[in-house]
Amino acid sequence: MNLEQLAATARQMVADNKGLLAADESTGTIGKRFEGIGVANEEDNRRDYRELLFRTSGLGKFISGAILYDETLRQSAADGTTFSALLEGEGILPGIKVDTGAKPLAGSPDETVTEGLDGLAARVEEYAGLGARFAKWRAVIRIGDGQPTPYAIGVNAHALARYARICQEGGLVPIVEPEVLMDGGHDIERCDEVTTETLKRVYDALYDQGVALEGTILKPNMVLPGTDCPTQAGIDDVAARSVQCLLRSVPAAVPGIMFLSGGQSEEEATAHLNAMNAAFPGLSWKLSFSYGRALQAGALKAWKGDAANAGAAQRALLERARQNSAACAGTSSEQAA
Fold first, then answer.
1. Intra-chain end-to-end CA distance of the chain, in Å
2. Known catalytic residues?
3. Which residues make Cβ contacts (< 8 Å) with residue 330, sequence separation at least 6?
4. What's the pLDDT tens digit per position in 73-105?
5. How much is the pLDDT for 263?
6. What is the pTM of this model?
7. pLDDT-based confidence at 193, cuts 50/70/90?
8. Which among 179, 204, 113 has a CA at the least distance from the CA of 152?
9. Is the pLDDT of residue 281 over 80?
10. How far apart are CA 294 and CA 260, in angstroms?
């Protein structure tokens, strides 16, 4: 493990008010996105769309890295340039999703555990050879009747820690992503409680596995009420609760916390991040973003699968990236819808 190199990469990922573009949708997930704009879920269309994103001029001013799917990391642009080289030319680090998805958890089938540890060391070695500099693994924690169980939290925390150690041994910075889902009718207090417990268990596991925190990034959910909760929280309340939860749970050695959007609108995700950085300057870790839909929704809507719309789609992406970069400094003008 080259900790100096890992730590330098992790710091680069959160430097200069930049964040990550999550473009690691699986083939099935991007198919759902394409269905919404009337585009066939074919490899050429997936490649053309990702090339449009990665060729956005000036994107590297606001985006430090892009998380890719296995297919995408292996693809090349129309002119033969690999996507990893295309990103690096814009100053954007290529990353890779390495888990194989959440599956029913034995002994608690209504909960899930993320799989993909088998053969991971060999895959990490291959991905590093293809240009990846960091990796991502997402665990899914659901709030419901009797959920999450301590068992489910513990199993997912252990898997995240094993993944992180394997990645560091292979030279990739691990993004540790324990996502407490927004789905459900729970209130913000319940989300706070579950997120705090999950993060504490995750960091216990990371310590147990000897993971060097200086060479990691945390990608958590914000502390939000469930989507079906009758009482929704204001922007400042979400910001305060999210930061206070992190202060209770995340060691200072972690270089950066890059939030997932988790189903929030583009405007909400930006406004919440902005409120955190405006109200809580000088934290030990950087607060940034790692957004998928909250960066891409406008671009997808503008593109519609038509090459003639590429410019409009790129402008939409660039504006969202610019607003989120400003939110990292607490200076965004974005207002939640």
1. 45
2. 177, 219
3. 274, 275, 276, 277, 278, 279, 281
4. 999 999 999 999 999 999 999 999 999 999 999
5. 87
6. 0.96
7. very high
8. 113
9. yes
10. 9
CA distance 25 to 41: 12
Using an 8 Å Cβ cutoff, are 26 and 68 in contact?
no
Domain ranges of the chain: 3-328
Residue in the block written with tokens 């573009």: 21
Q: Does domain 3-328 have CATH number 3.40.50.150?
A: no
Q: Which residues pair with 147 in a beta bridge?
A: 144
The structure tokens listed for 101 are 């998805």
HEC-encoded secondary structure of 162-199: HHHHHHHHCCCEEEEEEEECCCCCCCHHHHHHHHHHHH
User: Where does residue 228 rank: exposed (0-12), middle (13-18), buried (19+ CB within 10 A)?
Assistant: exposed
For residue 336, pLDDT beyond 70: no
SS3 call for 71: helix
